[in-house]
Amino acid sequence: MSALRVLHLYPRTLGINGDAGNVLALRQRLQWRGVAVEVVTVEAGEPAPHEVDLVHIGSGPRSARDALLGDARERAEQLRAWASSGVPMIGVGAGFHLLSRSIVLLDGTERGGADVLPVTIRDVPQRTVGEALGMLADGRRFAGYLNHAVDVERHEVEPLVDLDRAPSAAAGSPAEGVRAEHLIGTHLHGPVLPMNPWLADELLTAALARQGQQLPPADERVREVDEHARRARAVIAARLGRAGVEV
Amino acid sequence: MRIRLAVLVGRLVRVVARLRGGGSAIPGNIALRIAPGFLEHALGSMPLGVVFVTGSNGKSTTTNMLVAVLRAHGLTVFTNPSGANLPQGIASSLLATVGLDGRVRDDLAVLEVDEAYGVGLADRLAPTDVLLLNLQIDQLNRFHEPDRVYAMLERIAAVARRRLIVNAADPNTADLGRGARADLALVAFDVSPAALAASPHGVAPAPHIATRGTAALPAPLVVVESVEGSTAELTVDGQRASVALPARGLHYAVDAAGAIATAHALLGERFSTSVASASLGALETVYGRGEILDARGQAIELVMMKNPPSLQLNLDALGRVPQCVMIAVDEGTPDPSWIYDTDLSTLDHVDIVTGTKAHQWATRLAYAGIPVGQVIDDFRPAVDALLAMPEPTDGPKVAIVNYELMMELRLMMGYLDLEGGS
Asked: How many structural domains is chain A composed of?
C-alpha cells in the first residue's frame, strides 16, 4: 500500500497545547513499526487531499475556534464522507468543538459545526483546569490535563471516558469527551496520544484496517516510550490521590 | 501616618527577610496591608511619568535596558528588580528607595508589570507610557487562553495617559496599537523581514486574536535590521546603530528595539543613539537567562523553561549541542504538553531528567529520538548526580529548569539574594 496519510488540520492556528505531539506520536509509532506514513498539513482556505486515512485537529483559543468555524463547515461534507467511510478522527479542545453539531456561544448564539460528532458544545463562564484521571470499562486508564470552559451535550453517544479524578469544576460531570466508534473528541492534553498511547494505536489500527492491513506489533522503541508514558500516568494518578493504581 | 508606619515596618521586615534569604514579596505585602495606597502614594507625582513594560516575554530584559538607557542620559529612574512584577514585589522594591514620607524622588519610574496584575496596577498608577512587547503562548494553566491575555494588554493600554509603544512585528501588539485611543501618541518598533528570516524560530507570536481599528501604525522609530551573535544592527530614527545584546538571540534585539524606541520617545531631543548603545553594551546578563550558577565550585548554565517561546529562544541561544544536560521541571509547570511544540534539535542526548514532570519529559524526548541517561524522580539527588558527572569540555553543564526548580537550585547552592537582579 502507499503511505498511510495523516491529515493534520489547522496546525498553525490550533496547536497551542503541544497538539503536534499527537501527530508526532502517530507518525513515530508507525515508522518504528516499519509502516510508511505521510503527514499532510492544511490550514484554513487551503485544499485538502481527496483521500486521507486519519484526521487530527488540535486545540486553540476560543477566538481561533470561532474564526475557523466557517472553514470547518465548508469542509463538513468531505469530513462526513471520510467519517462514514471509516476514517478515524480525533479532535482536541477547539478541534473537538469544530467537529460538533453546533456550538452555543456565551451570548446564546448557536453556530453550526462540521457535524461529524453528535454533540452540542456549550461555552460556559467557568473553566475546568487541572489534571484528570479516568478509567474505561476494560480497566485501561486515561490521564491528562484539562483546560476548557464548555459543557458537552451528547446526543445518543457515549463519552470517551468517565473521569474518577477531575478538577473541581468538572466534578459534577465525570464524563469526558465523546466517542462514536472511530471518531473521538476530547479535552485532554498531555498531549493525549503520547500520554495514552493505546488510544493512538486504536486510531492507527482503524486506519490500517480500512486498507486491509494490521498494525504490526510494538518494537523496543514503542515499548520504551510507552513505559515512560505509563510512569507519567502513574505520577498523575498519585498526585490525584490514587497512588499505586494500575495505570 | 499609615504611610510612614508602612515604610518603617516594611523596611524592618525587608532587612530580616534578606538575612534569612526569604522571598522578596513579603515586606511589600506587609507594607501594602498597613497602607493599601502605598504604591499610588509612592509613585503618584513622578515628574517625567510612570512607564509600564509588559507582554509575555522579555519584560525583565527590556526594563533593564530601558532603565540603563535613561540613566545614561542623566535621568534618575526608579525600577523594580527583574521578576518582582506583582504589586507586592513592586512595593518591596519601593521600600528600599522611598523616604519616610513614602515618596520616590526620581525623575520617572519604569515598571516591569505582570500582564494580569498590570490591569489593576494600571488603574491604580495611571501610567503615562505603556510599552507592549508581545503576546506569546504563556502559562496557559494560569491565563487559560491567549485571548484573555490580549484583553489584559488591551485594558492596560487603555489606561495609558500619554503614549503607547508597540511591537509591530507581533500581530497582536500591532493590532492593539492600531486600536489605540486617538489622543495617545503612538510609537512602533519592528523587525526587518531579513532579520526574521535569519532567526531559527522568528518572534513566535501567539495566534492573531483580534483585528482592531484599521488605522495604520506609524513608521517604526526603531527597526531590528539584523542580528549577528550577540550584536544587533538597528535603524534608530533613520540612523544605523550597532548595539551589544546581553546574549545571542533575536528576542534580545527586539527587547533592545523596544527599549530604545521608548527612551527615544521619552527623551525627545535629548536622546543620543551613541549614548544609548554604549549603555546597552555595559549591561550584564539578566537573571535566570543564560545565567551561570556557581554550584559547589562547578559552573551550571541555566536554560529557563518558562513558556514555549522563551524555552525555544533560550535553547537556540545556547549556541552549542551541550555535552552534559539535566532537565528539571515540577508542578510550577502544571501542564507541560507544550514541550511538543519545542524544537529540541540543539540536544543530542539528555543525561538526567528530574522533577515531578520527569516522565512527561522522558516521553517527549523518546519521541524526538533523544536518548535519556537516567530519570531521577527526586530533584536533590538528581542535582548531586549532575555535579558528579565529569566536567564537559564545551562549557558549563546545562540545566534546563522551570522557575520553581531554578529557585530551589539557587537555594541548594546557598544563594541568598532571591530578589535577583541588582
From this structure: 1
